[in-house]
Design goal:
The chain is α/β, with parallel strands linked by helices. It is built from 8 helices and 13 strands. It has a 6-stranded mixed beta sheet, with helices on one face. It has a 5-stranded mixed beta sheet with strand order 4-3-2-1-13, with helices on one face. Strand 2, helix 2 and strand 3 form a beta-alpha-beta unit.
Length: about 270
Amino acid sequence: MRIAVTSDLRFRPDRLGIVENVVSQIATLSPDVLVLAGNVGYPIVNFDLGLSMFDRFAFDKAALLGNRDLWSKNTGTSSNLLWNSLLPDTLKRHGYSYLEESNLKVGKVGLCGTTGWYDYSGRDNRLKYTVEQYAKLKGLVNLDAQNVEWDWDDQDFAARLQVSFAERIELLERDHLINHVVVVTHFPVFGDAMAHSADDPQWNFGSAYAFNLALGRTIVPRRKLRHVVSGHISIAGKWTITFGTNAFKFHVIGRDGETPYVAVIDI
């Protein structure tokens, strides 16, 4: 089985050529399953158009939401409404399985996913900022502070998603028909991808809003786990992570300039 995962298409009319190149690459790969790991497009009209680029394909499709998909400032709607109904309904209309709500099972492979959101567990402890300070200073480096308008704070929202994700992945662990589990998240969940640099204080500070390492600790004990794939950040990478007797691959999709890569998993 071949699974193709991409992220951060960020569809806009001026990015049509970039997205078309990604679509062509995926067509060449001939996957059995395509997963879009968030940041498809903003506002919702671009989200809809981004999804439509893959409408001609008959393979299974699944998706998650990214932080930019939820930007609502000056759009006439709220991030709550986008999250709770508008974006999930749009995914389903285009034939996508919404991994935040349910797993996708294809043969003996189970796909489980979540946006993840950032909970400040990726903060650089060398900087000595408290969690409360990160919450107050978020707007200095992260546009979500101005553009995501909803009722949750970051840590509460991340915890809420983690609880429901843990329930879904446990279902796959207990399913006797599933031998392999693939997890997809928008925000990276393992510190291997945290390329801290003393020469880039903005990155060091902003990492608090780019990772969810607590979610990674929920994922690693699963004995059927074979791959974890995350989007959001620009630097691509692939690592082997060992936990007890199990070893699995952790992929960060990344991008080449403005063009997202495609992670390919063959099982």
